[in-house]
Specification:
Helices cover 43% and strands 14% of the residues. The protein is built from 5 helices and 4 strands; from the N terminus they run αββββαααα. The structure holds zinc ion. Zinc ion binds next to helix 2.
């Protein structure tokens, strides 16, 4: 309960700085170097840990499973779900081909993101990260040029 203490009073210094109580930082998982986003409302200043843009549009997940797809950050699972939903709407033959094409586009974007993150990674390492074969990596790499 002590982490939820309210009524803490802190004095502002000459530069407008105030120390955030450690209990609140702990509660919100805010640490040294984290970015804080401010909000104004009802005469109060609110703040929260800043969420970087590479957060899944649908489920707010972050990390290497989130990729840029058609100018939106989407995680692997949500994109897979979106593609499958899309497929159900189309007839079987055309749908399968469309899904295959979308999967390739998606994999190319993931590969591009991973190469950007790990420029020194070998084809083997990239294959392991993406969960595909080395052959597929070299095949997809041709689309990156
Ligand atoms: Zn997601």
């Amino acid at each position: 309960m002590s982490s939820r203490t309210i009524g803490i009073v802190r004095e502002l210094d000459e530069l407008g700085r105030v120390v955030l109580p450690i209990e609140m930082r702990r509660l919100l998982g805010i640490g040294f170097g984290d970015s804080i986003e401010f909000f104004l409302g009802n005469g109060a200043i609110m703040m929260r840990k800043y969420r970087p843009l590479s957060t899944c549009l649908f489920c707010n997940r972050t990390g290497s499973a989130v990729v840029l797809f058609k100018n939106q950050f989407i995680c692997v699972d949500c994109l897979d779900e979106a593609v499958n939903t899309d497929r159900e709407k189309t007839n079987a033959g055309f749908g399968t081909r469309k899904k295959k094409r979308q999967k390739s586009e998606f994999m190319i974007e993931r590969l591009r993101a991973e190469i950007h993150k790990h420029p020194e990674a070998s084809q083997k390492e990239l294959a392991e990260i993406l969960g595909i074969s080395q052959g597929r990596v070299s095949q997809l790499k041709k689309f990156l040029a």
